[in-house]
Amino acid sequence: MSHRSPSPLPGRRGVLRGALGASAALALPTIGSAAPAFALSGRPEAGWGVQAGDVTAHSGLVWVRSDRPARMVVETSRTGSFRDVTRWQGPLLGPGTDFTGTTRLRGLPPGEQIHYRVVLADPDDPRRTGEPVEGTFRTASVSRRDGVRFLWSGDIAGQGWGINPDRGGYRVYEDMRALDPDFFLCSGDNIYADGPIQPSVTLPDGRVWHNITTEEKSKVAETLAEFRGAFRYNLLDENVRRFNAQVPTITQWDDHEVHNNWYPGQLLADDRYTEKNADVLSARSLRAFSEYFPVSSLPAGDPDGRVYRVLHQGPLLDVFVLDMRTYRNANSSNRQADDTTGILGAEQLAWLKRELSRSRATWKVIASDMPLGLVVPDGATRFEAVAQGDPGAPLGRELQIAELLRHIKHRRITGTVWLTADVHYTSAQHYEPEKAAFQDFEPFWEFVSGPLAAGGFPAVKLDGTFGPQQVFLKAPSRANTSPAETTPYFGEVDIDGDSGELTVRLRQEGGDVLFSKTLQPGRVGQ
């Protein structure tokens, strides 16, 4: 978002300075430095916790980080007692992946709670192992009647608002964990590589916000090590680690994984950077992203990997994860009459149309890292997302979306729902062709929720090209309100197994429901 300028650059500081000692409520990984040492005594440790990702009916990925070279071993069981286990040999963890690793589990039983534990073994002495670290997840059900329930949000550690031990860290993660969803969809901006975290920030009312910070997060991320440190930062929060151990994730990325509003080929006009080539920075970030999240289509170091993918969650749900960052054209006035690159790129758009046509799921959730009809500016004359404020016929990046919406209508694809974050408030938009300049599409809903742990911002304008009608909105009246002033937001999607109805609930920290909407399966125009 162009109106979210990164925090001023503080001086470099030692690891975990700032407010680290301000509260005993926030437990940190028992790791003495960001980069593991090779001469450590004792046994391998996994102080950064475990996480599972891209779980389907029969498979899933398990992630861990070691404090030294180690062999990753995963043991799974249908019970928490681990009486009968299946053992999965994982990779050797070393400096090439920042001592992280992912093990793919296959042939899992559908619709069941899977208990797992990760054991790290000394590569020179397999009998020398660390304490197991446990986690759990549910595989997707192949039975329609079981239903599906998941959460989504995005935007974490942005605008200088980091882990504050005075308020218990990212406590919204505990609210989400208590709902025990089948999975969590993170809609991007998992980190703010361009937003340093200072030890303290004075709020408008004179209160002081304290942050835990690290050496890597005290400046903008440019090197691979700094990007790795930025992705590692959120794992310092006990709430996040506890959440990760219970709820599997589907993760996508957006601009702040690299730099505010970046696009391919961009040369940054940012004096804080010595490396100004966005392509170089994005390659480093994508490598760190693939090391720190279990993403099925993007193993670390794979040059052919990609973020966009579809995750099948049983007969009721397919999740289409988009990448509106990697393949877009340059930000501009966005009013060109012909635009085949757009915001998705031609190849990704063809993939999305093909996979939507193939889907037999009742609901097709399109996980978009940016909204469609909300006008997101990039400076005074350029635009960052799809819309540009011209309410007339589609122009620029709107042409791709018009093509997609036309495809959905003419192929009679039902049950599409758009979920996003990005704009740092929560809202619901119903897109209605009879109120739009472009009318060759069926009505659909778009729901916005976030941020989880970043600054809140006022609502942006709507663009009339696709006829969005905003039926709910909650946003602050000024820019960059802290999480202490504007509560974090997240969304919930609950698909009933008996009726097939999909209910969206927009929630805030504490779990309160702000807005709810129930959609009927197989219908259009709801």
Protein architecture, described:
The chain is of the alpha+beta class and 526 residues long. It is globular, with a radius of gyration of 22 Å. It has helices spanning 172-178, 224-233, 238-246, 278-292, 346-358, 398-410, and strands at residues 50-53, 60-65, 70-77, 86-93, 100-105, 113-122, 125-129, 133-138, 148-153, 183-186, 200-202, 208-210, 249-251, 309-312, 317-321, 363-367, 377-378, 382-383, 416-420, 426-431, 444-448, 468-474, 489-495, 502-508, 513-519. α2 (224-233) crosses α4 (278-292) and α5 (346-358) packs parallel to α6 (398-410). The relative contact order is 0.13. Residues 2-25 have low confidence and may be disordered. It has two domains: 49-139, Sandwich (Immunoglobulin-like), CATH 2.60.40; 148-519, Alkaline phosphatase D (PhoD) (Purple Acid Phosphatase, chain A, domain 2), CATH 3.60.21.70. The protein is built from six helices and 25 strands. The strands form six sheets. A seven-stranded mixed beta sheet has the order 14-15-16-19-21-20-22, covered by helices on one side. It has a six-stranded mixed beta sheet with strand order 13-10-9-23-24-25, with no helix packed on it. Keywords: Signal. This is Alkaline phosphatase D family protein. InterPro entries: Metallo-depent_PP-like, PhoD-like_MPP, PhoD-like_sf, PhoD_N, Phospholipid_Metab_Enz, TAT_signal. It comes from Streptomyces xanthii. Residues 1-34 form the signal peptide.
